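Shipment paperwork, digital attachment
Item: protein structure file
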Amino acid sequence: MPAGSDVVEPEDVSLPRTWRPFGARIAVIFFGTMLLLICAFAWFGFDPEVRAKFTFFQRSTLVFLGLLAGSVGYALARSRVVASEPGLVVVNGYRRRDYEWAEIISIHLPAGAPWATIDLADGTTTSLLAIQGSDGERARNAVRTLRSLIDR
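Attachment content:
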């Protein structure tokens, strides 16, 4: 953070507070919908003779790949960070981690980093997929707010 960055007072933050990725969620929704529509139009655009040439295994493979891509997109879109009085709840994909405020030492979002990370008291770090570096000022504000909550 630059030296002149705005400081957020912990008293100004109402808890519980939730952060979610913005740009990634929009991309998942938009491109997922577009891919689904293109595949549906292509399938129904084929002549019945062409559709009949696809075997059950080929169709099921395409459905499986679509469901796999959908589950990855859903995992990214459901990522969130929830700050509450007892601590921080981090949901990355399908995994949830609960941290007490005393366990969290600091939060970082270096320039060019894909997402924020928190340093923990046991020497490990955890990524926060909900705070994406590509979200720009929105992500920097989230880091400032979380930093003020960690420091209190």
